[in-house]
Amino acid sequence: MRAGPVIAPASIANLGSGFDALGVALSLYLQAEARSAAQDRFVYQGEGEVASGPDNIMHQTFRAAFQSLGISPPKVEISVYNPIPLARGMGSSAAARVAAAALADEMLGGRLGLQGIFTVASGQEGHPDNVAPAVFGGFQIALAQPLLQQTLETPKTGLVFVVAAPPQPLSTAAARAALPDEVAFADAVFNLARAALWPAALSSGNLSLLKEAARDRLHQPYRLSLMPGAEGAIASALEAGALAAFVAGAGPSVAALSDAGNLEQVQKSLLNYAGDKGRVYALSIGEGVRWKAP
User: Fold this and answer.
1) Domain 2-152, second-level architecture
2) Which residues have C-beta within 8 Å of that of residue 153, sequence separation ≥ 6?
3) Which secondary-structure segment (H or E) carries 60?
4) What is the mean pLDDT of residues 40-57?
5) What is the spatial distance between Cα 100 and Cα 59, in angstroms, rounded to a whole number?
6) Quick check: helix, strand or coil at residue 15?
7) Which among 80, 96, 143, 162 would be 20 to 30 A from 28, CA to CA?
8) What are the b/e assignments for 220-242, b being 16+ CB within 10 Å?
9) Identical topology for domains 2-152 and 160-284
10) Contact criterion met (CB below 8 Å) for 22 and 197
């Protein structure tokens, strides 16, 4: 029995103000296949180093997909090529989990569907703001309790996300640990208003609103101390004409949304933050998980 290949996109969560709620898919795709095997086996190529044992996150999610239907999972070899940087705020783990759930769904004859893939992968990932874009593509809003998602309208213009990924990773756990247990009421109100601007700006096409929509008081001020140079990089991108700029997910990457006219200047503005050993990506808005012809 074989499944795949499937591809699942990178993603950026939060988009500044939409902490643990907003996300967007990017046109950088992990690819995976699965085939029956005597024992679970994991073959990995791509960014960083990943443990090859059967307890990797893809096998965990593959098994969870079968178990969600009360079916004992088969043993499989999962082969993956992953161009998404690890621990950089670009949704590498969500892409991996979504791809694994999609492989399982193919072996299950499509009994999960996209909603089932979303449910299984979100349960394994722990929060759906990266998972929803990886499953459904484009801009997404996602809630954990109750688990649901809604696709946001995408403007029919040539928007590009410029993402500066520095060479040093930052674990999500460390970025979470930097957050306070409580925030000021005024800061919560500040973010609620700006998160609401995202769907309004996207649906209306008034993209000048996005600069304000991306401003944040809930997580970025506490995390920037873990990301030397990130605050300056955000300011530089805005000065270069970016429509919005913010920490990518939990960081340490910085993302800027640009139109075609300012793309070159925005890319140049983020080169220093990436440094000689980092990378600057220019990525269009991505599609959700999908199957490719072998």
Assistant:
1) 2-Layer Sandwich (3.30)
2) 139, 199, 202, 203
3) helix 57-67
4) 90
5) 7
6) coil
7) 143
8) beebbebbebbbebbebbbebbb
9) no
10) no
pTM given for the model: 0.95
Neighbour count for residue 105 (Cβ, 10 Å): 25
Burial class (CB in 10 A: 0-12, 13-18, 19+), 22: buried
**Identity of the residue numbered 67:** Q
CA–centroid distance for 251 within its chain: 11
Nearest Cα neighbor of 272 from 235, 244, 241 is 235
Q: What are the extents of the domains in the chain? A: 2-152, 160-284
pLDDT of residue 50: 87
Q: Please count the other Cβ atoms lying within 10 Å of the Cβ belonging to residue 95.
A: 33
> In this structure, is the dihedral angle defined by the CA atoms of residues 22, 218, 250 and 265, taken in order, positive or negative?
positive
Domain 160-284 has CATH 3.30.70.890: yes
Q: What is the DSSP letter of 261?
A: G
- State the chain's maximal CA–CA distance in angstroms: 57
Q: Kindly state the average pLDDT of the residues 57-63.
A: 97
261 or 77, which is more confident: 77
